[in-house]
Amino acid sequence: MLEHPTLSQFVLDQEAKAGGSGQFTDILLDIGVVGKAISYEMNRAGISDILGEAGVENASGDVVQKLDVRSNEMFIKYLSKTEHFCALASEEEEGIVALESGKNSDYVIAFDPLDGSSNIDYNVSVGTIFSIHKRLSKPGRPGTIKDFLQPGKDQVAAGYIIYGSSTMLVYSTGQGVHGFTLDQGIGEWMLSHPNITIPKACDIYSANEAYTRTWDEVSQRFLEEFKHGNDKATSRHIGSLVADLHRNMLKGGLYFRPYDDHKKKSAKLRLNYELKPLAYIINQAGGYATTGLDNILEIIPEDLHQKLPMIAGNAYIVQEYETIFKASNS
Ligand code: AFP
After folding, report:
1. What whole-number distance in Å separates Cα of residue 70 and Cα of residue 53?
2. Is there a catalytic annotation at residue 53?
3. pTM here?
4. What's the gap in Å between 245 CA and the centre of ligand 1?
5. 114 carries an active-site annotation
6. Which of 161, 213, 241 to mutate to test the pocket of ligand 1 (most atoms within 8 A of CB)?
7. Can you tell me the distance from the alpha carbon of 313 to that of 177, in angstroms, rounded to the nearest whole number?
8. Which of 20, 66, 93, 242 is deepest in the core (most CB within 10 A)?
9. Do 184 and 293 share a domain, yes or no?
């Protein structure tokens, strides 16, 4: 059972090699603690009256589930006590949570406590996503909104926890992508997927094809050609972003979500809480993520809850799409 390194052993070792102070190990372990607590609650959800809608909408206009509220509370309460962050931003909160307790910290964290939560009641995999930046504001006081309006390429760490057939924590600090599986028996994250790299073959596509009718023509055509230009092409769409990207990263694949309605420029995915951290992970695994016009990691957020398209996965396919899309928009 103990043949795999634990999360703390692995991160401490990596930090020591990079000449770090050990602070990042503490940060990742704290995120891991909240992940374990969410995983525990989720596994008991059917018997603890925590399934279903909470009866409100969040800052992004989505219907909030009871487990969204619970996971958000757990993240905010637990991370606020750690003094690791001078501010937090959650997909569930309108504004940032500025932290007096962490005023001397150099870091801020943005998170989506439970992504894909409309799937929870049906036992479909969901996830937690996080993005960590160094603060831009002056230390000695709580962080400010400008600490969160930074491009994804400046993240110092990002990752996700996927609550699926097993619970996994996947992260990167810019030295590859590493995945840990939660051993429920001993409550430890064990290294199970070191140095994740996207395989070369890109046969899977994941798209909500119900929106095809309101996509732009270039995107419609690109997906048609992807489907018909490869005998092995197959569709896999869970509708839970973390799960769709996790599978595609391990198997190779294309995640395809242009503007849902290109005339209205309406998009669902959130730059700070979903696109930036997941693009960072995909990039570290050898892939690429674009809006069609821009490398997602280069975009400076206009506000906390900005929403944009995302096409992500194997670099050569995503770059081909970007080239065609840009040419049609020039
Ligand atoms: P929820 O957390 O509201 O379920 O949203 C999840 C999500 O952002 C992402 O995880 C899914 O891939 C996407 O929305 C699904 O949205 P559609 O149902 O509009 O395709």
Report:
1. 12
2. no
3. 0.94
4. 13
5. yes
6. 241
7. 14
8. 242
9. no
**Model confidence over 106-138: pLDDT tens digits?**
999 999 999 988 888 888 999 999 999 999 999
pLDDT given at position 43: 82
Which domain range does residue 71 map to? 7-193
Say if residue 95 is in the same domain as residue 129.
yes
Domain co-membership, 230 together with 310? yes
Has residue 1 been placed in a domain? no
Sheet-wide strand order for 204-206: 234-235, 204-206, 253-257, 310-314, 287-290
**Are 310 and 239 part of one and the same domain?**
yes
Closest CA to 109 of 227, 234, 51, 24: 24
Is the confidence at residue 47, as pLDDT, over 70? no
Mutating to test ligand 1, I would choose from 51, 62, 124 the residue with most ligand atoms within 8 A of its C-beta, which is 62
| pLDDT of res. 20 | 76
Find tokens 């294309």 and name the residue: 254
311 plus 177 within the same structural domain:
no
Residue 281 lies in a domain: yes
pLDDT digits (tens, 9 = 90+) for 182-241: 999 999 999 999 999 999 999 999 999 999 999 999 999 999 999 999 999 999 999 999
